Amino acid sequence: MEPRIWRWATESVGAKFVFISTDYVFDGKLSHAYREDDTTNPQSIYGKSKRSGELHVQAILTQYFIVRTSWVYGVYGKNFVKTMLELAKTRDSLKVVSDQYGSPTYTVDLALFLESSFKPIVTVFIMLLIREFAPSMNLLGPFLKKVASR
Asked: 128's torsion region: left (phi>0), alpha (psi -120 to 50) or beta?
């Protein structure tokens, strides 16, 4: 959709625009949690397209929320947590990459956060939504294996 239409549509009814983005707007080289004001440097087409969307929102809209999520998981769809739990049921050990860092975002937490964000009056807002920082996927894998074995 044309970004100028976003502005007209939101401002004509006094709404705020919510843009769901991703931690893929960063280059992934830090070994700790990113902050909202860290320099972006997307490496993939997906990350570049999300960063481009963020920049369009910031350039055109006057009232918006940009929410950056990472490793989104929930009951529906494919996701890392669900995959690890399924694999843990049939394998004695799991091999998981050790060079990816991030924070799993539960879909229910994201929905509740978004719902509560509409209550306060905030004009411009960029948020990196994380629950707890997971050092790497290979450390999260064994944890999920333990959870699955219960």
From this structure: beta
CA distance readout (Å), 18 to 50, 91, 132, 134, 142? 13, 41, 23, 26, 35
Phi and psi at residue 29, in whole multiples of 5°? -85, -15
Selected catalytic residue, list 24, 46, 76, 106 = 46
Q: Which residues sit opposite 124 in a β-bridge? A: 64
Does the annotation mark 46 as catalytic? yes
- Segment 32-78, tens digit of pLDDT: 778 888 999 999 999 999 999 999 989 988 888 899 998 888 888 88
Sign of the torsion angle spanned by Cα atoms 38, 40, 43, 49:
positive
Report which of 141, 139, 127 is spatially closest to residue 88, judged by C-alpha positions.
141
What does pTM read for this prediction? 0.72
Mapped to the 3 state alphabet, what secondary structure does 20-61 carry?
EEEHHHCCCCCCCCCCCCCCCCCCCHHHHHHHHHHHHHHHHC
